[in-house]
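Async update (no meeting this week)

Hi team, since we skipped the sync, here's where things stand on the single-chain job. The sequence we agreed to prioritize is pasted below, unchanged from the tracker. I ran it this morning and attached the output directly underneath so nobody has to dig for it. Comments welcome in thread, and please keep replies under the output.
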Amino acid sequence: MFETGIFYAFAAILLFAGVRVVTARNPVHAALFLVLAFFTSAGIWLLLRAEFLAIALVVVYVGAVMVLFLFVVMMLDINLERVREGFWRNLPVALVVGGVMVAEMFFVLASRIWGAGGPRRLPADYSNTKELGRVLYTQYAYAFEIAAVILLVAIIAAIALTLRRRKDHRSQDPSAQTRVKRADRVTLVSMPAERE
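Output:
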């Protein structure tokens, strides 16, 4: 009963944070609400006794991906008015996609609750981390490697976006500095000596 109450509390916080990610006017606030959503998702994973997934969610998403999101959001000059212009135009498509996702989750949960066989009993020495590693590195090894390459490309693209040239940006060009000759920088002026 206590675990059920905690689950519903975490689920309510997760739903609130998910809605605020979409509806927050400030992109930094939206990213911080996404951090809250990740933390509460990790709490739900802990309740489901999937400790490795909970820790991985906090370390990978909160510790790395969200820092990258915040870095990109704060470094890019995002025109918020242009972003908000397409909100109402794209709302029907977003509602359809959200409805499909809700229906999929309902069917997954319904088949687990009312499906044949009931919940599977696991042995006492079962380790979800060991089982996850076995499946991930045997059955889904290529998909795992492709996902790693996609994340690497995304990180490189985020860095490239923040390194664009600006008009007010001042920097030194070492190659131009080494090509300079003495005559380009130093001018000798002959002046008569003055006597007091």
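Quick observations from my side:
The two ends are 101 Å apart (CA to CA).
The CA atoms of residues 45 and 75 lie 33 Å apart.
Reply here if anything looks off.
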